[in-house]
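WARN no homologs supplied; continuing
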Amino acid sequence: MDRSEICSRMEFCPQSPSAQNGVKFEMDFLSESSLLEMVSLQDLILGHLPDPEVFFPHDRDYFRQIFQHDRSVIGVRVKESLAAYSIIRIPGHEQDNLGRDIGLAEDELTSVAHLQATVVHPAFRGNGLQRKMAAAHLHVIEDLGFKHVCCTVSPKNPASLGNIIHSGLVIKGLRPKFGGWWRYIMYRNLSWPRDMHKALERDEKTVVGSDLSGQRVLLNEGFVGFKMVTQSNGFVLSYGKISALQ
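OK structure emitted
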């Protein structure tokens, strides 16, 4: 499947813009010519964070390296202005390959792709842009022949956590990253069945999102987080046995 076919499959081409809440969004793969726009949008996001731990920024050299891989960056535009972007990264055998954090075998690390970062302008949140970009990039990852998908999400960012869980990833780990900031290690095996939640619900246990120690106990016992319910005072996560998927 080539670049144009994935665009069409995901209703992703700028020739067929989608409209949400009266706003037309045009989605396409970005090239390095959009680097400065991405840096500018990232800087804007950093100035609106409720907590600096929520998002780990990247510099221009990092973005340049990302663009070396085809289809690695997806952008969403509104009236020619960049409203959101999503990045995938191929870590290979580098030390920060998240496959190491979840216990993948060394020979499986080259089959790992990261959903590395997603940024959405505050004015356009609530339109499902993160979910749409994640769905498109998951198709790219599968098309490229990778088997494992990983990413990190801050426990202080329930909106992003809900979007990533909706995209079919589960909480597989919880540990300090980026100099000590806690992160969920999210994971999906692309061979898992689409109705995997039914299997996980057999041993379902719930825990409030703020109970990190309780979640770490469940993870150590072989559970994974697969569902999130938002409440007025926080959120609740459902955990199920990972063995049900194997």
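The first helix runs from residue 3 to 9.
OK
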